[in-house]
Every structure is written in structure tokens, then in C-alpha cells.
Amino acid sequence: MNTKLMVFLAHDPGSYDVTNPVYTKLSDRNHTVKYYCMGPAASLNPQYAASEHDFLAELHAYLGAGIISVLVTGRSWGTDLEPRAIRLCQDFHIPTVAILDYWSNYTMRSADPSCTSICPDHYVVMDELAKNEAVLAGVPQSVIRVLGHPGLDRYVGYRSLQSKPISNVPKLLFLSQPLSQLYGDSWGYTEQSVLQDLLRAVEQVPMQLDVKFHPKDNSSFKEQYGSISVTGDLIELIPQYDLVIGMNSMALLHAVIMGVRAVSYQPQLQIPDVCITTKLGLTPLISTYSQLTAYLQSLPLLLDNKETDIQIHNKAYLWFDGQSAERVALFIEDVNRNGQN
Fold it and tell me: What per-residue confidence (pLDDT) applies to 237?
């Protein structure tokens, strides 16, 4: 067995979701693996928390000593740490693997104007849709590996078996995302305007509304609506609700997989829809406030049918077999063993 070091790096929650299951499998198989979590990923798993400075210093040291066999990263936004680490390893002819966690933002870019586009040696994507979109976005088809989505494994096979009684006041969970920090209001809405719409709607159609904030949400926004916020693991939170509402959150797919009704609310959407559940036809897209209130008014009847909008188990998706982390781990073992670059 190649005893050189496999280095894993995660920054965002999505990056952590896809790298952690693979890291765990390889660690359990007694590979020499080092995991670094920064930013929100460090909050999710403080055991592997590291500063950017310390990580880069250690990475330089490992590369100089010639003891790294492969670098594995996620695909975060709002930071160029992962692409910089990839470029650094490539300078030392160390193979790099990036694992995509969502069906958007396929290209990696560095803040360095001299090398704005960076591509890993192996780009793991979840299905053929992601592959086709990545190619259209400019990712070379030769580096793409269609292996699934390791972050979805734990949701697959988990469907709420309890027949939850319909209460007089249905429970709604809003999944916030810090979209305004990246895009302002150029999408036609912000997380703040969506939450305000939802609060106004539940005054007209009495329902309980809670919000699950994203780790990168603005602190003042979280404080403003702290009275309706909930915390905890989504796999435990989602089954407690009758309806999950998001914009384009990955957790909408989690809800559908788990058998909980979900919708995407993106009022006055000004860009092509990137919500994966609407792209796959798994949830409806609600684009106006009037459509939102109409949907909420019909919700008790929809819930009484005790069916989700789409029976996802009838769909043939690679990632729906629950074996994505295993496939990716086997692939990385092959890279580790053969030094593919």
C-alpha cells in the first residue's frame, strides 16, 4: 500500500458534506490521511479545524518533503483557498481531486489575476446532468469523473415511516442561504426578502414558520429573526415539518429524498434557475407571492393525500444507491496507488 499522505481540505458546509464521508472511509481503511477544515466546515467539525495560514504552511512542508500522494478538496464559494491548494500541488506534480457538491458554479477561480481559472486533475461530479453542465461551463470533459454525491448517502433510504397527524397549524421550515452576500439583489430576490414574504404569507394563511440559518448568513439577519430560528442537524429537523421551503438549497433535495414535501420559492427570478430539485422535476418552482399564498392555502389538502410531489424512488439517479462515498473512496485509492496526474 502507498503509505504517503492523502490530504483532504474542506471550507464550506457543502464541501464538508462531500469530503467527510470519503475521508472517513479511507481513514477506517488505515490509509494515512490528514483532514483540514476551515471556515464554516471548521464549525461543523472542530476536531479538524485549522487556520488558512497553518494549512498552507503544512501543505508547503509536506510538498517539500515529498510525502503527499494526493490532494482532495471540495468546491466552496466565497473563497479561493481550494483552487490555490490545487494549483500548488499541481506545481509539485501531485494529483488533485475536487468533489462537486452542487449542480452550479462548476469552474474554479483564483483571486490571483494571473491564473483566474484552475482545474483539478480529477473532477468528481454527481451525475450526467452535472457532467453536461460542467462541460458547457468550460470544464474539460477529460477530467470529469461521474461517481455520485457522497453527501447524499446518509439521506438515501431514510424516509419518514411515521404517519404524522395533520395539525390545525402546519409547520413550515425555511432554509436560508446567504445569497445577497454574493449576488446582492441581482437574482430578483434575497434571503431577507424571501423570509419577509413568508412571514407575511403565514399571517394570511396561519401556519408555524421556523427558519434554519446558513452558517454564512449575516449575523444581524440571524439576530433579527432569532425568535423563529431553529438549530440542529437537518436529518433530524426536516422530518418534524410538513413543508420545507428554500430558494436553491441542497437541503431541498435532502427533504425530497427523506419523503418530506418541499418547494422552491424564488420570487421574480432574474437568472436561469439553478435549484436542483426544480431542474430534476422533483419540486415546484414558485416565482410570485400570489403563487406562494395559493400553494400554502392548498397545503392542508396536499398533506392529507400523504404523498410527496414526486416519488423519487422511481427515478434512476446514480447518487440514489447510497454508495457514492464508496465509489469515490475506491477512485481515490486508485489515484493514491498509481499516482495518476
Answer: 93
Residue 306's pLDDT is what? 56
**pLDDT for 250:** 92
Average pLDDT value over all residues in the chain: 90
Task: State the greatest distance between any 2 C-alpha atoms of the chain, in Å, as a whole number.
Answer: 65
118 Cα distance to chain centroid: 21
Band of residue 161 on the pLDDT scale cut at 50, 70, 90: very low
pLDDT of residue 307: 53
Domain that holds residue 197: 171-314
Instruction: Say if residue 17 is in the same domain as residue 141.
Output: yes
Task: Check residues 35 and 216 and name the one with the higher pLDDT.
Answer: 35
**251-277: burial string, b at 16+ Cβ within 10 Å, e else:** bbbbbbbbbbbbbbbbbebeeeebbbb
pLDDT of 111 over the 80 cut = no
Q: What is the pLDDT of residue 105?
A: 85
Q: Are residues 11 and 147 in the same domain?
A: yes
- Count of C-beta atoms within a 10 Å radius of residue 165: 5
Kindly list the distances between the CA atom of residue 330 and the CA atoms of 35, 125, 220, 279, in Å, as whole numbers in the listed order. Answer: 18, 15, 44, 29
Is residue 180 one of the residues assigned to a domain?
yes
- For the entire predicted model, the pTM comes to 0.85
Number of independent structural domains in the chain? 2
